[in-house]
Amino acid sequence: MLTNRKRILLLFILFSLITSLKGEELKYLPHLSRILKGSEWWKSESKADSVRKAYLEEWDSFITQPQIKSLKWDFNYGLDHGFEWTMPAIDWHEASGALKLINDEDKRGGSRGRYGTTTYSAMLRTHFSEKQVKQFLIRQDGYAAWNCVAELYYWKKRRKPDEGWRGVWAGYNSGYEGGKEYSAIIAARVWVLKHRLFRNKNTR
Protein backbone atom coordinates (compact mmCIF):
# COMPACT_ATOMS: atom_id res chain seq x y z
CA MET A 1 0.00 0.00 0.00
CA LEU A 2 1.32 3.44 -0.90
CA THR A 3 1.83 5.87 1.94
CA ASN A 4 1.17 9.58 1.48
CA ARG A 5 4.93 10.21 1.49
CA LYS A 6 5.44 7.73 -1.35
CA ARG A 7 2.55 9.26 -3.30
CA ILE A 8 4.12 12.71 -3.04
CA LEU A 9 7.46 11.32 -4.20
CA LEU A 10 5.88 9.58 -7.17
CA LEU A 11 3.95 12.71 -8.11
CA PHE A 12 7.21 14.68 -8.07
CA ILE A 13 8.91 12.10 -10.29
CA LEU A 14 5.97 12.09 -12.72
CA PHE A 15 5.90 15.88 -12.84
CA SER A 16 9.63 15.94 -13.62
CA LEU A 17 9.11 13.31 -16.33
CA ILE A 18 6.20 15.15 -17.94
CA THR A 19 7.96 18.52 -17.97
CA SER A 20 11.00 16.91 -19.63
CA LEU A 21 9.03 15.51 -22.58
CA LYS A 22 9.89 17.05 -25.93
CA GLY A 23 8.90 16.65 -29.58
CA GLU A 24 7.92 13.09 -30.43
CA GLU A 25 7.93 12.12 -26.76
CA LEU A 26 4.81 14.24 -26.18
CA LYS A 27 2.71 11.66 -28.03
CA TYR A 28 3.01 9.39 -24.99
CA LEU A 29 1.38 11.94 -22.69
CA PRO A 30 -2.27 10.94 -23.43
CA HIS A 31 -1.38 7.27 -22.76
CA LEU A 32 0.21 8.16 -19.45
CA SER A 33 -2.86 10.17 -18.51
CA ARG A 34 -5.18 7.23 -19.23
CA ILE A 35 -3.01 4.85 -17.19
CA LEU A 36 -3.02 7.16 -14.18
CA LYS A 37 -6.76 7.77 -14.45
CA GLY A 38 -7.45 4.04 -14.59
CA SER A 39 -5.29 3.11 -11.65
CA GLU A 40 -6.42 5.95 -9.35
CA TRP A 41 -3.40 5.13 -7.18
CA TRP A 42 -3.09 8.74 -6.05
CA LYS A 43 -6.23 8.60 -3.94
CA SER A 44 -5.42 8.90 -0.25
CA GLU A 45 -7.81 6.07 0.67
CA SER A 46 -8.86 3.15 -1.52
CA LYS A 47 -12.28 1.51 -1.31
CA ALA A 48 -10.73 -1.47 0.49
CA ASP A 49 -9.11 0.89 3.00
CA SER A 50 -12.41 2.63 3.71
CA VAL A 51 -14.26 -0.68 4.18
CA ARG A 52 -11.60 -1.94 6.60
CA LYS A 53 -11.75 1.36 8.47
CA ALA A 54 -15.55 1.09 8.80
CA TYR A 55 -15.38 -2.45 10.20
CA LEU A 56 -12.55 -1.46 12.52
CA GLU A 57 -14.72 1.34 13.92
CA GLU A 58 -17.64 -1.09 14.22
CA TRP A 59 -15.46 -3.45 16.24
CA ASP A 60 -13.99 -0.79 18.51
CA SER A 61 -17.36 0.87 19.16
CA PHE A 62 -19.91 -1.93 19.30
CA ILE A 63 -18.36 -5.41 19.69
CA THR A 64 -19.36 -7.23 22.88
CA GLN A 65 -17.90 -10.11 24.88
CA PRO A 66 -20.63 -12.59 23.77
CA GLN A 67 -19.79 -11.77 20.14
CA ILE A 68 -16.07 -12.19 20.76
CA LYS A 69 -16.74 -15.53 22.45
CA SER A 70 -18.66 -16.74 19.41
CA LEU A 71 -15.99 -15.52 16.99
CA LYS A 72 -13.24 -17.25 18.99
CA TRP A 73 -15.28 -20.45 18.89
CA ASP A 74 -15.39 -20.09 15.09
CA PHE A 75 -11.64 -19.50 15.01
CA ASN A 76 -10.87 -22.62 17.05
CA TYR A 77 -13.27 -24.77 15.03
CA GLY A 78 -11.78 -23.67 11.73
CA LEU A 79 -8.16 -23.89 12.90
CA ASP A 80 -7.65 -27.58 12.08
CA HIS A 81 -9.11 -27.04 8.60
CA GLY A 82 -7.22 -23.88 7.64
CA PHE A 83 -10.35 -21.73 7.92
CA GLU A 84 -9.52 -20.09 11.26
CA TRP A 85 -10.06 -16.55 9.96
CA THR A 86 -12.70 -17.33 7.35
CA MET A 87 -15.25 -18.84 9.74
CA PRO A 88 -15.33 -15.97 12.26
CA ALA A 89 -15.45 -13.48 9.37
CA ILE A 90 -18.51 -15.24 7.94
CA ASP A 91 -20.13 -15.42 11.39
CA TRP A 92 -19.48 -11.73 12.00
CA HIS A 93 -20.84 -10.72 8.61
CA GLU A 94 -23.82 -13.05 8.42
CA ALA A 95 -24.94 -13.11 12.05
CA SER A 96 -23.04 -10.36 13.91
CA GLY A 97 -21.16 -12.95 15.94
CA ALA A 98 -24.16 -15.26 16.55
CA LEU A 99 -26.42 -12.40 17.66
CA LYS A 100 -28.64 -12.60 14.57
CA LEU A 101 -29.54 -16.26 14.12
CA ILE A 102 -32.40 -16.09 11.62
CA ASN A 103 -32.64 -14.15 8.39
CA ASP A 104 -36.08 -14.46 6.82
CA GLU A 105 -35.00 -12.78 3.59
CA ASP A 106 -33.18 -15.87 2.36
CA LYS A 107 -32.50 -19.51 3.25
CA ARG A 108 -30.24 -18.90 6.22
CA GLY A 109 -30.27 -19.89 9.84
CA GLY A 110 -27.57 -20.18 12.46
CA SER A 111 -24.42 -18.17 12.94
CA ARG A 112 -22.45 -19.38 9.93
CA GLY A 113 -25.03 -17.90 7.58
CA ARG A 114 -24.44 -19.09 4.05
CA TYR A 115 -23.86 -22.73 4.89
CA GLY A 116 -27.59 -22.76 5.49
CA THR A 117 -28.37 -22.71 1.77
CA THR A 118 -26.87 -26.16 1.07
CA THR A 119 -28.11 -27.71 4.31
CA TYR A 120 -31.54 -26.16 3.80
CA SER A 121 -32.00 -27.76 0.38
CA ALA A 122 -30.80 -31.19 1.56
CA MET A 123 -33.02 -31.22 4.65
CA LEU A 124 -36.11 -30.06 2.76
CA ARG A 125 -35.79 -33.15 0.60
CA THR A 126 -36.29 -35.17 3.79
CA HIS A 127 -39.62 -33.35 4.35
CA PHE A 128 -38.47 -30.90 7.03
CA SER A 129 -40.20 -27.54 6.94
CA GLU A 130 -38.26 -24.28 6.47
CA LYS A 131 -38.88 -23.34 10.10
CA GLN A 132 -37.67 -26.75 11.33
CA VAL A 133 -34.47 -26.49 9.27
CA LYS A 134 -33.64 -23.03 10.63
CA GLN A 135 -34.31 -24.08 14.21
CA PHE A 136 -32.15 -27.17 13.74
CA LEU A 137 -29.25 -25.08 12.44
CA ILE A 138 -29.51 -22.78 15.45
CA ARG A 139 -29.64 -25.60 18.02
CA GLN A 140 -27.02 -27.80 16.34
CA ASP A 141 -24.27 -25.24 15.85
CA GLY A 142 -21.58 -27.92 15.67
CA TYR A 143 -23.30 -29.59 12.73
CA ALA A 144 -23.80 -26.22 11.07
CA ALA A 145 -20.11 -25.39 11.49
CA TRP A 146 -19.12 -28.77 10.05
CA ASN A 147 -21.33 -28.08 7.05
CA CYS A 148 -19.68 -24.67 6.65
CA VAL A 149 -16.23 -26.30 6.57
CA ALA A 150 -17.42 -28.85 4.00
CA GLU A 151 -18.77 -26.07 1.80
CA LEU A 152 -15.50 -24.10 2.05
CA TYR A 153 -13.48 -27.22 1.16
CA TYR A 154 -15.75 -27.75 -1.83
CA TRP A 155 -15.09 -24.30 -3.26
CA LYS A 156 -11.41 -24.33 -2.37
CA LYS A 157 -11.03 -27.31 -4.71
CA ARG A 158 -13.19 -25.92 -7.51
CA ARG A 159 -12.30 -22.26 -7.84
CA LYS A 160 -9.22 -21.30 -9.84
CA PRO A 161 -5.99 -21.44 -7.78
CA ASP A 162 -4.97 -17.93 -8.84
CA GLU A 163 -8.17 -16.54 -7.28
CA GLY A 164 -6.87 -17.37 -3.81
CA TRP A 165 -9.08 -16.91 -0.76
CA ARG A 166 -11.29 -14.39 -2.53
CA GLY A 167 -12.26 -17.12 -4.98
CA VAL A 168 -13.16 -19.47 -2.14
CA TRP A 169 -15.29 -16.82 -0.41
CA ALA A 170 -16.99 -15.85 -3.67
CA GLY A 171 -17.79 -19.49 -4.43
CA TYR A 172 -19.11 -20.03 -0.91
CA ASN A 173 -21.53 -17.17 -1.42
CA SER A 174 -22.44 -17.36 -5.09
CA GLY A 175 -21.09 -20.52 -6.69
CA TYR A 176 -19.10 -20.24 -9.90
CA GLU A 177 -20.29 -16.77 -10.88
CA GLY A 178 -20.29 -13.52 -8.94
CA GLY A 179 -19.55 -13.11 -5.25
CA LYS A 180 -16.86 -10.44 -5.68
CA GLU A 181 -18.58 -7.95 -3.37
CA TYR A 182 -19.12 -10.64 -0.73
CA SER A 183 -15.49 -11.78 -0.91
CA ALA A 184 -14.32 -8.17 -0.53
CA ILE A 185 -16.43 -7.86 2.63
CA ILE A 186 -15.04 -11.09 4.09
CA ALA A 187 -11.49 -9.97 3.24
CA ALA A 188 -12.02 -6.72 5.13
CA ARG A 189 -13.49 -8.50 8.14
CA VAL A 190 -10.60 -11.00 8.16
CA TRP A 191 -8.17 -8.07 8.25
CA VAL A 192 -9.95 -6.56 11.28
CA LEU A 193 -10.14 -9.91 13.07
CA LYS A 194 -6.41 -10.46 12.67
CA HIS A 195 -5.82 -7.10 14.35
CA ARG A 196 -8.49 -7.31 17.04
CA LEU A 197 -9.78 -10.78 17.92
CA PHE A 198 -6.98 -11.74 20.31
CA ARG A 199 -5.98 -8.27 21.37
CA ASN A 200 -6.46 -7.50 25.05
CA LYS A 201 -9.15 -4.85 25.17
CA ASN A 202 -11.99 -4.07 27.53
CA THR A 203 -15.28 -4.59 25.76
CA ARG A 204 -18.86 -4.31 26.86
Q: Which runs of at least 5 residues are low in confidence (pLDDT < 50)?
A: none
Number of strands: 2
From the spread of the alpha carbons, the general shape counts as: globular
Average of pLDDT: 75
Provide the spatial order of strands within the biggest beta sheet.
1-2
Proportion of helical residues = 55-70%
CATH third-level topology of the largest domain: Lysozyme
Short synopsis of the structure:
The chain has helices at residues 4-19, 29-39, 47-62, 65-79, 86-95, 115-124, 130-139, 141-158, 164-174, 180-196; strands at 102-103, 108-109. It has 204 residues and is mainly alpha-helical.
Provide a descriptive summary of the structure in words.
The two termini are 33 Å apart. The chain has 204 residues and is mainly α. Strand 1 and strand 2 form a beta hairpin. Helix 5 crosses helix 10, helix 8 crosses helix 9 and helix 9 crosses helix 10. The chain has 2 domains: 36 residues, no CATH class; 150 residues, Orthogonal Bundle (Lysozyme). A two-stranded antiparallel ribbon has the order 1-2. It has 10 helices and 2 strands.
